[in-house]
Amino acid sequence: MTDYYYPILNDEYELPFYVLGAGARDREWHFIREEGYPNYQIIYCTRGAGVLKVDGMTYPVNAGDAIYLPPDVPHEYYPTEDIWETHWLAFDGKGVAALLEHIKLDKAKVVHINDINAVDAIFKKILYLMKTNYYYCGHQCSAHLYQFLIELHRVVNLQNGSQEGQKLNQLQPVIDYIEKNYQKELTLVELAELIDLSPQYLCRLFKECLNLRPFEFLARKRIQQAKILLLEDKMNINEIATSVGYNDCSYFCAVFKKHEMLSPAEFRSLHKKAGK
Q: For position 162, what pLDDT does the model report?
């Protein structure tokens, strides 16, 4: 299949994410771009094989692999088999750089997609919308582009086999334990022993995987459960504090307000009004 589309954009340029082009080729072309391409690109292979040359390195690109290319980075890529089917997106926007940094696409690279169908389904929505060419298709493509990038992060970095996935798998027993025992008084030593780590390394692992310390994660779980109980409106605030693991109601209220910018009573009142 060879199919591609370059939309005419209007106010989409003001959006944090917008698609500049999308397409599919059953035999990708040989591109040599000595000055790079002016926008962000993601090219992923669905069949066959090719090669990417960038930053003095050569990378094989096989089915299930994706190429990420930032703007203005010199590169070359070409097929090495009769079939090298690729799907590609070119995009830009004010919010793109920050999101790509967050999902660890910080330089030109080749990554493996563990579930290519997940991202391909979103890509096909984008291509279909662009071909309809109705007025709001660019805005909908913007939303799908954001979804595509987040899903790409998930299927690349949070699957078994990646370094990040291995770390998250290692941490999962602690996460599960907190989910089931958040109402109890937990210690860092107790949590670390679950996966035979030192408390210091457990803190480091939490920070790397979730960008939180263990007790920050515990507090979020407790506040999440407290909000459910506040909305059910069957218990007073002191009882709720105790039920989610806080013996001191004043401390519970302080933690709740830090997270929600509202006291538990204000949160309950706000949602009572909203429900009327």
A: 57
